[in-house]
C-alpha cells in the first residue's frame, strides 16, 4: 500500500474521531438550549408570535399597526409549526426542534451526495462534521426558533436529489426547492442553476419539468398569500427589504474574509478544487481567475485590517477569486455542447450562494446567519474534492483530508459551549418578569420579548425588529415612527415591557419606570443582539398623577442590529 494511502487513512480516522467528539459537544449544548423557556436569540419570541396568530386564525400580513407588523419572511416555517401544533403543542422546544431536524438533514445530505454520486460516503461524512462545526460561526442559528435550520435542510436535499437519475426524485427536489422558497424567499434563485444543469444533462424537456414542478407551487403559494392578505404580502416580502440600505464593505470583501477565518479548511479545499478543475478549460479562464484574485488582493490591501493582512488576506483573495472565475466560466459554457453538466449545476449553485451571501451580509441588519448556505456549499466542494482525488489515487487526497482534520480540530478546540447556554438564574429572572406581567390587564407592548406576554396569559404583539424594518425613510408602509409616537402619546398600551436598550418614539414621556425585574443581564440572549426585558412601565398619569412629563427627547434614527 502506498504511503500516501496510509497517511490518508490515518488522517481520515483522526478526522472522524474529532468530528464525532465535536458533534457530541454540540449535541449537549443543543439539548440544554432546546428546553430553555425564554429567548436564546431576541427574535425567537417574535417568530412564535407568528405561529400563534396562524393557530388563532389571525392574519399575518396586514396594514401596520402598533399591535402588529410581521417579519419580512415568508410564512412557511410558522405555518408548518402551526399545522404541527395540535399534535406537538406550541413553544420553544417544538420550534427549535424543527430547526435542529432541518440542520441535521442538511448535514446528512452531504454523505448521501458523495455516496450516490461517487460511491464514497466518508468524504461527505467528514464534510458534514465540518458543516456542523460552523455552529458558533453562524451565531448558533442551527437550533433556534428561526427559519434558517429548516430552510437549509430543504434546499440541501433539493440540491442532492436534483442530481438523481430517477425523474421522480427530481420531482421531489423541485417540491423541496419550493419548500425552501416558502420558508426563505431568496432560495428561489437556486432553481436557476439547477434547471440549467438539468438542461445540459437531460435536455430542455426535463429542465422544463423541473421548472414547472417548482415554480407552479411557488406562484400558487404567493398568489394565495397575496390574496389572503389583501395585497400586503408582497409589500412585506419584497418592497420592505428592498428599501433597506447596504453596507458594501461588509459584503465584499468582508464576507469572504469572515468565511476564510471561520472555515479555512473547507473554503481553501473548495477553492483549490475549483482551480484544479479549470485545468482543462481555455487559457482565458485561468487569466480570469488571476485577474479576479489580484482584484481581491487590491481591495483587501486598500481596506486593511487584521483579517486582510499577511497570508490570510492572500489566501482569501486567491480562493474567492477562483470561485468568481468558476462562476463566469460556467455562465459562458452553459450554451456550449461540450460543457459538463456537473460544472453548470455545481458552479452555478456555488455562484448563487456566494453572491447571495455577500448581498445579504451587506444588507442593513444582515447577521452572520446569512452565511449558512454558503458554508454548506463549500462543504459540498470539500467533500467532492476529497472523493475525486481519492478516486484518482492522487496524493492530493491526503492533503485534502488533512485540511478537513485541521478544520475539525480547530472547531473542537475553539468551541466555548458555556457562552452559548443561558445563565443559571435566567429562568428565575424570567419568572419574575412573568409574575409582573400577570398583574396587567389589557394590551402590553413587549418589543424585545412578545412571547413572554403570551406566557403570562396575554396576546403576543409586534416585535421591535419588525418596526425597525418598516421604519426607514420612504417606507411603503408609511410613517411608522409617527404611528408609534401617537400610540405612546395616547397611552394605547396598559403597560410597556421595556429593557436594557432604548426604545425612542417618546415612550419615556408617557410611561413611568419601575424597579428592575430579576437580575440585570440574566435574560440577555446568548446569540445575536443582546436586547432583553427588565422593566414594566405603566402610563404616567395612572402611575403617578400630576407627575410632569420629562423634556421631549430628540428624534432617533432606527436601524436593524
Relevant terms:
24 helices; mainly alpha; 561 residues; disordered C terminus
Number of helices: 24
Output the helix-strand order.
HHHHHHHHHHHHHHHHHHHEHHHEHEEH
- Termini Cα gap: 56 Å
Helix-strand category: mainly alpha
What's this, in brief?
With 561 residues, this protein is mostly helical.
Describe the structure.
The protein has 561 residues and is mainly α. Helices cover 62% and strands 3% of the residues. The chain has two domains: 3-34 and 82-262 and 341-405, no CATH class; 40-71 and 422-561, no CATH class. The chain has helices spanning 3-34, 44-55, 76-88, 92-118, 122-132, 148-161, 167-183, 191-202, 204-228, 233-242, 248-251, 254-262, 264-277, 283-303, 310-333, 341-362, 372-391, 396-414, 426-438, 450-455, 464-470, 480-489, 507-510, 540-543, and strands spanning 444-445, 495-499, 511-512, 533-539. A four-stranded mixed sheet has the order 1-2-4-3. α12 crosses α15. The model is unreliable at 296-314 and 542-561 (pLDDT under 50).
List the helices and strands and how they pair.
Elements: H1 3-34, H2 44-55, H3 76-88, H4 92-118, H5 122-132, H6 148-161, H7 167-183, H8 191-202, H9 204-228, H10 233-242, H11 248-251, H12 254-262, H13 264-277, H14 283-303, H15 310-333, H16 341-362, H17 372-391, H18 396-414, H19 426-438, E1 444-445, H20 450-455, H21 464-470, H22 480-489, E2 495-499, H23 507-510, E3 511-512, E4 533-539, H24 540-543
Parallel strand pairs: 1-2
Antiparallel strand pairs: 2-4, 3-4
Helix pairs in contact: 1-5, 1-18, 2-3, 4-5, 4-6, 4-17, 5-17, 5-18, 6-7, 7-9, 8-9, 8-16, 12-13, 12-15, 13-15, 13-17, 13-18, 14-15, 15-16, 16-17, 17-18
